[in-house]
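new request in #modeling-help
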Amino acid sequence: MRIPIIAGNWKMHKTRDEALQFIYAINMEVPKREYVETVVCAQAPILRDLVKRQGENVRIGAQNMHQETEGAYTGEVSAPLLENIGVDYVIIGHSERRQYFNETDEAVNAKLHQALRFNLVPILCVGESLETRESDATENYVSAQIEKALMGLGKEQVKDIVIAYEPIWAIGTGKTATNEQANETIAFIRKRIGEIYDSETMESVRILYGGSVKPENIVGLMKEPHIDGALVGGASLNAKSFMQLVDAAFN
Ligand code: PGA
C-alpha cells in the first residue's frame, strides 16, 4: 500500500504571519501520517519558523535547492542547510523553474542525488506542454524527463523519491487533465520505472498528479488506481480548501 501525499506548493505567496496562521489552522486537523502525508512547501526564509511550529502530522518542504553542498552561489539554498533546519521534502524540477530559471535535466538529476544525500524527500516534477500533448508526444517527452532525472540512482533511492506528474497546460490555468488522462500518463510513468528498475520499485514509488487540483476534482483523481495524491498550487493557499484535499486523500 502506498501512503497518499497531499503537498501544497505555495510558490511565491504568503508572508510569515500568513504562513504561521495557516499552519496553526491545519496542525490539529490533519490525519496521522500513516494514513496520509501532509506537506507544505514554502519560501525559504520562513521554512525554519514553520518547522518549529509544525504539528505532529505536518511536514515542511522547500521549493528548490542547489545541487552543490556549498560555495559561491549567491542567492541559492543548500541541501545541508535544509536538512539542518528540519525540512523534510524539497520540490525538484518544477516546470516554473525549468521555464523561468533555465533548470536543465542535468541540474534536476544532480539535485535529486544531492537531496537524497541529505535525507530530503525529493518531489520530482515532470510534465509536457500543450504543444507536446497535442502532437501526441507526451509519453516520449515524459519518459525522457524521467530517464534523465533518475540517471545514476539505484532502486533503493528511487523508492524514496516522490514523482509529480504536472502537465504544464494544467498548471494555474483552471484546466485540469481529466482523471483518465492523469491516470494514463501516471500509469505510463510507473511502467517506465518498472522497465528501468523492477516491479517492486514500480509498485512502491509514489506518483502524484498536479495542475489545477481543487476540492471539486480531488475525489475523482484519488479514485484512479495509479494516482497517489496531489501537488497543489492555488488551492493550497487557503487552509480550508487545503484541508478538504487532505481529507479527500484520507477517505
Ligand atoms: P496549481 O499549481 O495547482 O495552481 O495548478 C500546481 C503546481 O504548480 O504545482
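bot summary: The pocket of 2-phosphoglycolic acid is lined by residues 9, 166, 171-172, 210-213, 231-235 (CB under 6 Å).
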